[in-house]
Amino acid sequence: MPLFKRFALPMFAGIAALSLAACQSEAPSDEATATAGPEAKPGVKITGARVVLPGVAGNPGAAYFSLDNQGDAAVTIAVVAVEGSGRTELHAGDMKVLDGGKAEARTHLDFVQGGPHVMLFDVSDRLKAGDQTELTVTFSDGDKMSVPAKVESMGTAAMGAMEHKN
């Protein structure tokens, strides 16, 4: 057996073992993972989160989602934050600013085009259609829930709205 092969195989095996050990020691513990993000609000689910980019840079965008409250008490949304947006406002379908959104116990609240929605201001040009960002709902009692939100262009969102009307 050539000298190179005699030493190369054990050397590569040793490097691979060290690399694997280093990866395993850097992995977060279950405890760190469980406490790293906001806790889910019991009985509340947020689904269908999506962000629609402004058609013209500098204009506001919008965010939509559904909140399903199967809990025993009403919940009130204090604020919705979207990663990549400087600030947000909750709006009614007539564009009036809402002071929170309330979902009674065992009800469903939809933030949709043409209805209640979240206006996004100072939208970062780093958000691109097809990407994903994070939407965080903060409730009036301080509880928070974060969910991934699909990022769409205004044209894609308009096509989706037309499909739902037919």
The CATH architecture of the largest domain can be given as: Sandwich
Low-confidence stretches are 3-38
CATH topology of the largest domain: Immunoglobulin-like
The helical percent reads 25-40%
Query: Which range does the strand content fall in?
Result: 35-45%
**How are helices and strands ordered from N to C?**
HHEEEEEEEEEH
General form: globular
Supply the CATH class of the largest domain: Mainly Beta
Domain count = 2
Number of strands: 9
Major beta-sheet overview:
9 strands, mixed
Radius of gyration: 23 Å
Question: What structural class do the secondary elements suggest?
Answer: alpha+beta
CATH superfamily of the largest domain: PCu(A)C copper chaperone
What's the tally of helices?
3
* Arithmetic mean of pLDDT: 79
| Span between termini | 74 Å
Structure, explained:
The chain has 166 residues and is of the alpha+beta class. The protein has two domains: 3-31; 38-165, PCu(A)C copper chaperone (Immunoglobulin-like). The chain contains three helices and nine strands, in the order ααβββββββββα. It has helices spanning 3-26, 30-36, 154-165; strands at residues 44-52, 61-69, 75-82, 85-91, 101-103, 107-111, 117-123, 132-139, 144-152. β1 (44-52) and β2 form a beta hairpin. The relative contact order is 0.19.
